Amino acid sequence: MMGMILSAQHLTKRFPGVVALKDVSFDLRAGEIHALCGENGAGKSTLIKLLSGIHPHGSYEGRFEVGGEEARFQSIADAGRAGIAVIYQELALVNEMSVAENIFLGSEPRRFGGFIDWPKIYREAKVLLDRFKVRLDPAARVVTLGVGQKQLVEIVKALAKDSKILILDEPTAALAEHEVLILLDILKDLRARGMACVYISHKLDEVFAISDRITVIRDGTSIVTKEAGEMTKAGVIQHMVGREITDLFPRRAAVPGAVVLRVRDLSVKDEQGLPRLHGLGFDLRAGEVLGIGGLMGAGRTELLMHLFGAWGRRTAGTVELGGRSLDGLAPAQVLKAGLALVSEDRRRYGLILEQEIGFNLSLSSLGQFSRAGFVNRSEEAVRNQESFKSLRVKATGLEAVVGRLSGGNQQKVVLGKALMTGPQVVMLDEPTRGIDVGAKLELYELINQLTGEGKAVLLVSSELPELIGMSDRILMLNEGRIGGAFTRAEATQERLMEAAMGQVGVG
What is the pLDDT of residues 385-435, one digit of tens each? Predict the structure, then answer.
């Protein structure tokens, strides 16, 4: 490992009414991957915004150096010129441009006379892609790529600018498992070439697989920095939340009741007429959590969307909720019947980000407060406040704008909106994606509360430990079919993965 490339001392950042960072110190060595861990709202994003010039010099206390010189960044461009590149969860690519055009956007090589040298752009883009073993056509339009491929384009884009420091904010939140492995391999290669990386993630398996050092931030303060080999996952979590966590998956033993959702021989085609779900059948009982797993594209989200009446054309089979057929019902009718969906993409499908918490919470249940077409705002406010308190949303009040909340608190609002409809069955699609350990534990306790009240939960998750830890039974999908069914006692990560890959019973 090489010398220090970034050193920050005693950084403090204040906003009206709140201190977001308090005397934080942080350093980064060349040829190092330094993980930054903490709950949502702990101060990680604020620190990154200081280092990347979003919060300009003079707006904070303390100082930091890059390459031995004090950084006085006034903009992102200043940070970029100093060799700092940030890759956020929300990717900054132009969909209608090609891979090569995106890689060199803003720094296009020029010919004599100032004209863009297009052949050189595509030639150099291919060299960069090949160097890092990214199998993409430089001429491919970004709109045709998957999320994981777009993430790789972002990284190559940063490397094209000769960045010395790469900051990655939850880079694997939307990636399939094989894409995660590709990304981690690329980061290891960059480390070997001397690049310094700051790796922000809630996924501790990845943190310990890739990091040289780990820093934990809590409540705006740097709590600990240690070599990764000197720490444990349990220790990191304890530093993050400020208390000892004895059980990451506190699922209480269920006493299943009557069948509330019955699916028989369900086959569905997509909008192009291609078969996507094949002969699916299962029962879900009151008080039970049924986990749904599988690889990316196995049909998990499609199943939930179809049950909700929002996707696909059924070619065979039946779906009954409480003995009533849901065939042909639109989402609003399905919701009224007692089946609620929390989408995997809360920002796109679950929330109106520009609106307040109260507006979002009651959006799906306004009929409960309406008389003769008029909404009883007093009754709505009372119900919203009850939901706000019971979910322990961390915000100033119902008037807070949802788009400014952390991911975990946004997820609580989406859940609150679904629960205010009074469902019998709650379908949760990747409910813990992108949220921190503390928020996950609160969500798990909410699942326990729901099943304790007799509600049933369909839980889709890509995290096998979560599926095993929080489900009473698990179905693994493989190319739209059920590849295996397991009780919690029977399930292991190896058996679930074999079922997801269609290898059950194959020696």
Answer: 998 988 888 888 999 999 888 778 888 999 999 999 999 999 999 998 877
Q: What is the CA 82 to chain-centroid distance, rounded?
A: 30
| Span 186-229, pLDDT tens digits | 899 999 999 999 999 888 889 999 999 999 999 899 999 999 99
Place of tokens 């060799």: 83
221: CB partners within 8 A, 6+ apart: 22, 23, 24, 43
Give the helix/strand (H/E) hosting 183. helix 177-192
Q: What's this model's pTM, rounded to 2 decimal places? A: 0.67
Is 2.60.40.10 the CATH number for 257-338+423-507?
A: no
DSSP 283-339: EEETT-EEEEEESTTSSHHHHHHHHTTSS-EEEEEEEEETTEE-TT--HHHHHHHTE
- Tell whether domain 4-241 is in CATH 1.10.10.10: no
**Angular region, 279: left φ>0, alpha ψ -120 to 50, beta rest:** left
Pairing of strands 289-294, 374-375: unpaired
CA distances from 292 to 208, 327, 430, 457 (A): 27, 22, 10, 11
CA distances from 262 to 254, 291, 303, 337, 426 (A): 19, 15, 13, 14, 14
- Closest by CA position to 47, among listed 67, 68, 22: 22
Radius of gyration from C-alpha coordinates of the chain: 24
The three-state secondary structure class of 199 is: strand
CA distances from 385 to 288, 382, 402, 404, 413 (A): 28, 5, 15, 19, 12
User: What pairing do the DSSP bridges indicate for beta strands 481-487 and 473-478?
Assistant: antiparallel
Q: Which helix (H) or strand (E) holds 428?
A: strand 425-429
Distance CA(251)–CA(289), nearest Å, equals 9
Location of each CATH 3.40.50.300 domain in the chain: 4-241, 257-338+423-507
End-to-end CA distance of the chain: 43
Collapsed DSSP state (helix, strand, coil) of residue 138: coil
CB 185 within 8 A of CB 193: no
Is 480:266 a contact under the CB 8 Å cutoff? Answer: no
In three-state secondary structure terms, 504 is coil
Q: Which amino acid is at 305?
A: M
Please list the residues that pair with 266 across neighbouring strands: 280
